[in-house]
Specification:
Length: 281
């Protein structure tokens, strides 16, 4: 296949590298930063530039852009895509993207399938992209209800060939609800936690717990602002929920209620054990 990758940042750059390294497909790349594109060509991540006249030749186009930019690119080029071509996004929200893009795809004769790779780093940019970024990772696919099974299998086959070992199929609503908890809330908590004045004094007094909880505090605020606002309903519920839980711990401490505090900690431990399949009554 001739595959175009639009946006050669961490995800797009890693996809281009992984497709080039693991498959026989030809990869054309585009990035708003010409230096990034030149570097990608020099390192063999792409075979050439995805120029406007090459878009109609692509069998598949994968976007590595922010949600609004993804919609803008697809809408601007909808009439140029080859009939039957598959367009795949990699955005961290799906409700904001998928419904509109399914409509555009149907009107213009191409196929749109939402995708969200469950892999990443707390760094951004092509310079941090890795050919092995997706090894043993999960890929969440969000196809339309009337998707052609052959098109879906083609996308699944490509992602399995570049390192993904688990493919999940879901709806935009379920995706956004789960991602609000598994990813977005974690970034909010990490970002808020490290703002404690005590964090400045952590050296020599911190180990794994501190590192684990602060790793994603170093985020791309432009990207995450957009993602949070485009999934605000689900994220607000998760933030309000964790605040309510934290207030219970605070209340038990203020009251010096040993029994209540122990029960809260026990409940949390057992909840984790149940999730991990380790709980025994």
């Amino acid at each position: 296949m001739l595959i175009g990758v639009v946006g050669l940042g961490l995800i797009g750059g890693s996809l281009a590298k992984a497709i080039k390294y693991n498959t026989e497909n030809t990869v054309l790349g585009y990035d708003i930063d010409l230096n990034v594109l030149l570097k990608a060509k020099l390192l063999g991540a792409v075979d050439g530039e995805l120029k406007e006249d090459k878009i109609p030749e692509c069998d598949m186009i994968i976007t590595g852009l922010y949600p609004q930019s993804t919609k803008d690119f697809i809408n601007a080029n909808a009439a140029k895509f080859k009939k039957g071509a598959i367009v795949v996004d990699t955005c961290g929200v799906k409700g904001y993207v998928c419904e509109d893009m399914w409509k555009t795809a149907k009107e213009n004769g191409f196929v749109f399938i939402g995708a969200h790779p469950m892999a990443g780093l707390h760094y951004s940019g092509f310079e941090h992209s890795q050919v092995t970024l997706f090894n043993n990772a999960s890929m969440v696919l969000v196809p339309s209800k009337d998707v052609n099974i052959n098109d879906l299998e083609k996308v699944k086959k490509l992602f399995l060939s570049i390192g993904f070992t688990d493919i999940q199929l879901t709806t935009p609503e379920k995706h956004d609800k789960l991602i609000a908890f598994t990813s977005q809330l974690a970034h909010v908590v990490s970002n808020a936690y490290v703002k404690s004045p005590t964090a400045k004094e952590h050296k020599g007094f911190s180990a794994g717990s501190y590192k684990d909880l602060t790793r994603v505090a170093k985020l791309n605020e432009t990207m995450w602002t957009e993602l949070f606002l485009e999934n605000d309903e689900y994220l607000i519920k998760e933030i309000d929920g964790i605040i309510e839980n934290l207030q219970q711990y605070s209340a038990a401490l203020k009251a010096r209620d040993e029994k209540a505090l122990r029960q809260l900690l026990k409940d949390g431990r057992e909840c984790k054990e149940r999730i991990d399949g380790e709980y025994n009554d």
